[in-house]
Amino acid sequence: xxxxxxxxxxxxxxxxxxxxxxxxxxxxxxxxxxxxxxxxxxxxxxxxxxxxxxxxxxxxxxxxxxxxxxxxxxxxxxxxxxxxxxxxxxxxxxxxxxxxxxxxxxxxxxxxxxxxxxxxxxxxxxxxxxxxxxxxxxxxxxxxxxxxxxxxxxxxxxxxxxxxxxxxxxxxxxxxxxxxxxxxxxxxxxxxxxxxxxxxxxxxxxxxxxxxxxxxxxxxxx
Length: 222
Description:
Layout: E1 3-14, E2 17-29, E3 34-38, H1 45-52, E4 60-65, E5 68-69, H2 75-85, E6 86-89, H3 101-110, H4 116-129, H5 145-157, E7 163-167, H6 175-190, E8 194-198, H7 202-205, E9 210-215, E10 218-219
Parallel strand pairs: 3-8, 3-9, 6-7, 7-8
Antiparallel strand pairs: 1-2, 1-4, 4-5, 9-10
Helix pairs in contact: 3-4, 3-5, 4-5
């Protein structure tokens, strides 16, 4: 078992009322699964991804990652787990404006103890895989939305994460680019990487081995 969420509640307070983002949610994910999370806007999909990715806390319940209780871990230990195992593909890219494409992709590797020559080879491999070698010295602002998204995906994959969390990974791509990304995910999944993607696209969801439908912060599959 890679991760397990039990009875997760997440709420925000508004004028003395609790607005539930997630409500009594259960989810178990085995290593090597490819899961698609679907549901209407506001159903809690991105919140769920952020909690799994340890970017967001929850109010009640239990989250175990590799049999460790995430909510009981010290911040530093949690950050190490996250950097070691998880790659995040955001729809909004979150690229660093002041860094070139090359430097953006290299960023996750700086947190790990790779030698400079290893980093160079790993980044070169990603630039090659995504056909963006010619863009390596450009800054995000000089790229189209689709190219920025490709850089975001390359950055998420460069450190060979065990778990990829993707929030609408093809949201800003044309259909050909979108298909390329999904094919890369499919191949990574074949190689043993666990993938959890949030998507509105039935086509993208079909790449997964399991679809989870969220409604009002609950897993409506149960």
